Amino acid sequence: MKMVLNKRDLERAFSPIKHRKSGGRRSLNKSHKGGNSVNETSSSMRVYVRIRPQNPKEIENNTRSIIQVVDENVLIFDSKEETEPFFFHGSKQNCRDLQKKQNKELNFGFDRVFGCNSSNEAVFEVSTKDIVKSLLDGFNCSVFAYGATGAGKTYTMLGSNTVPGITYLTIVELYKQMEILSSEKEFNLGVSHLEVYNENVQDLIQPSGPLHLREDSNYGVRIPGLSLHRITNADELFALMAKGNKNRTQHPTDSNAESSRSHSVFQLYIRMTNKLDRNLKIMKLSMIDLAGSERGSATGCKGMRFTEGSNINKSLLALGNCINSLAGGLKHIPYRDSKLTRLLKDSLGGNCQTVMIANVSPSSNSYEDTYNTLKYATRAKKIKQMIKKNIVSVQLNAAQYSKVVESLTAENEELKLKLRTYEAQNACQKSTTMSTVQSNHKEKLSAPYQELEAMNTEISKLVKEIKLLNWRNHVKQKIADRLPCLSINNIQLDKRLNRIKTSMRQLQGRESSFKQKLRETIIRRNDHFERINSLIKTLDQDGTNTELNQHIAILHLQLELHEKDVQLGHYQQLLSMQQNELQSEDLIVKEMCNTLKQYHFLLQGNNITTEEMASHYDELVHKLEGFKHISWKKDQETNVNSNFTFSFAEMLRENLCSEGIIRVETANKPPANITVTGSVTDCTGQDGLSLSTVLTALPDNELSESESEAGDNGQCGERSDALRSTSLGVSLSANETEAGAEGKRDVKSNSRVILETVNEDGHQLPVSQTSLSENTEESEIQKVRDKTMECCGILKEINLPVDSMRDVVAECSVTPLKVHCDTAVQNGCSTNCSLLNSTFLLPKSSPSHVQVKSPRKLAEGNSTQSKKQITVNVLDSSKKRNGSTDLKRRLCNKENRVAGMKAKQSAVYRGAGHDSGKDHTFTVPVLPQLRTSKPSTPKLTPISKHCRPVTNQVSGKVAYMKQRNQLNRAHPYIAN
Ligand SMILES: Nc1ncnc2c1ncn2[C@@H]1O[C@H](COP(=O)(O)OP(=O)(O)OP(=O)(O)O)[C@@H](O)[C@H]1O
């Protein structure tokens, strides 16, 4: 037993390693092996020590070596020197000089000690080669180099141009291993590289200013804004690594001419998918080169270097504290003390297999640094880590199985097909004794065509990317246009708009870089194509080799097919994006409409709606109805085609008949009869209504009505106005399209009507131009006429003296008035008031008032209720202003309350003469005065279809609108 002589000996007695032991390593290796076989295991941090050779300065100063490597696991720090004989008063003494500082002689044991002569390859073989295996087994791994400044960390991690460091060697090994596994696994790799400089995190590959750290319970520490670069081969990875290292902050100090003044973290993300079961593992390899700890006095740093040094020391101190807490098994680990420890949280105490390489200098000049590093390393060895494989999905679900089976079956089929083709080709070759020359030719063409195919795919991909970016830009622009309409906070609006603009600029930047790439690829493709052409020329100089020509034709077809396939996929992707966008826009519109309606009612209820607001609101409603916007599908507008599709959405309204007139203009004189058939399909594209009619072309200005064969539910009335054009009036009554007792299909607003024109022989009729004359005066007249008919039917049914009205009307020139009623939905009635949107005509000298009985009795069969009437006075258009006032006054006199009013053109009244205080409101726009040249007798839709149970609450308005165009055509107005 050794005698404890003084304090230093005492320290030595309690030094971490008293005997030559390598238990740490053995236990680690054991657990490490275990880690590969199970999903979760515990492991000690592996710690290696590397001693660099003395540098020329140290050699020059003849400094003492303070490290003695005992064997591959043990070193002695500050071993006792071969003491020179000590003389006192001229005689040699047996004891030592007590005035001289005694050597520590501490033994340290590590997983491996690399001496001065060890190479980076040797370090890699022992320290990180195994890491690659663990990584591909699904474990996260970290390697970090720790040590004082100038101790050789960067040399170990990165090396130099001639001596590659362990990062390079590890990645080469990783690629080797991935190559071996490539038949079973798919790999996707991504890289990021950052530095922590003066407590700021910065991206080294795409420097963009300080980044922030975020902690996420699922993903640990994340750095939003840090660029992640996809790589496809080792060269790309090394290029990125080199770029990152070039950007790293380095400054010369007294200790190191190329001192790294920041901590560098290079991370490689691996996504590994098992081809068979599609199980996915995501792993992360972090290679960390820490900045070196330093003593200001030793390094002679001043100013900026001093600040850097103190930041480095601060973060390393925090790292030391974390290592101590982890080694001591404490619950609280002070990760948050520095950016570095927050970043290394995963590697130190998380789910990660970590290797620490402690770099030390052997020179007595670095005595304290080396001692501290060895103590750090010893503490770090005690850290136990629970590591588990990062398997995203271990078990397959049924859907995955079916997918795997599907893909395997498809592959199988493909192989079978190839085999058959091959056999057939073989047989064919035998029978035709195809010359080897031919097959040689084909072989020579195969690779260039494959290359061409790859280029085409790349082009398609780039085009898709450009389109995607374009679309995203367009969407952003739309948002930017819309935002100011709603936003009320200008500061926030500016912020939002700026954000959008920045992101649009980024998108545009990306778009132009894609465009550049596209141009380059197209040039490359064209060059390549030229080369193929010249190759073909050399193979078949006189162009008579038919077999070769056929083969080339097939190759071209295959190329085209492949391209179309790729494009199809891209278009589907684009389409689904656009559909999503449309859906979300649709939702916004609906929500906005609801909100607007609420606000409108609120204003109206408080009697503060201005005339302008009310008419704007009406205009919006009108626009939503879409009556004026029926148009042909754009791309079919000019097509010479007899099939055309148009949206019927605008024509369908909830409760009343809707119609449009379609004009079919033929290039030549149309045949006598044209059959127009059509179908209305609902939004699911299923069969719905069908309609059919025969148009007869008649000479100019001669109106004709021929028999209209309505299909199930559709009605078509037809007219012919000119030799070269034929118009078809199509009307669909909502009551006819409703799902209901008859079980008919509900035709909603996104239904479509498809019409087809066929002549007498059953041939499709070429149509040079198709246009919709819906907006023409004729259609206007037609519309009013139809509304009048319906309205009269309704009025008759609800006991309005239609006959007397008609008599009066017959005597006078007419001013058509449109009655518009809106009702709330109650008592389970899903329909609106029967008067909704109805139009009827009143003469200029109409009776002073029109009595409209409540149609309630129709619904309830209660005759007493029908006697309760409301009265609405409708004045003719020549007395608009006065009339409006009159009306108001009269209604007020009759104890009706004025709810809101438009002084000049419209007014809103609420009638209260109803049985239970229910209100009725009418919109009465004054339409242009019409003159009729030839009244017709239109049919009325059976009243029973129109009349619905009337709801308890009816609200609405009376509106006078300006007289519009003077129409030339006359108008039939009242029918029985
Ligand atoms: N094992 C070694 N063999 C030969 N030269 C070495 C070795 N280790 C380090 N060196 C040399 O020592 C010098 C300092 O090394 P390096 O820059 O790697 O130190 P460092 O620990 O990264 O320092 P800092 O923390 O200041 O960046 C370099 O010139 C390097 O070439």
From TrEMBL:
Tell me the GO BP annotations in alphabetical order: microtubule-based movement
The annotated region (Disordered) lies at 1-43, 728-750, 845-868
Which positions are tagged coiled coil?
A: 398-472
Subcellular localization: Cytoplasm, Cytoskeleton
Compositional bias annotation for Polar residues: 34-43
Q: Per UniProt, which keywords does this protein have? A: ATP-binding, Coiled coil, Cytoplasm, Cytoskeleton, Microtubule, Motor protein, Nucleotide-binding
Database matches in PANTHER family:
CENTROMERE PROTEIN E, KINESIN MOTOR DOMAIN-CONTAINING PROTEIN
Identify this protein by name.
Kinesin-like protein KIF18A
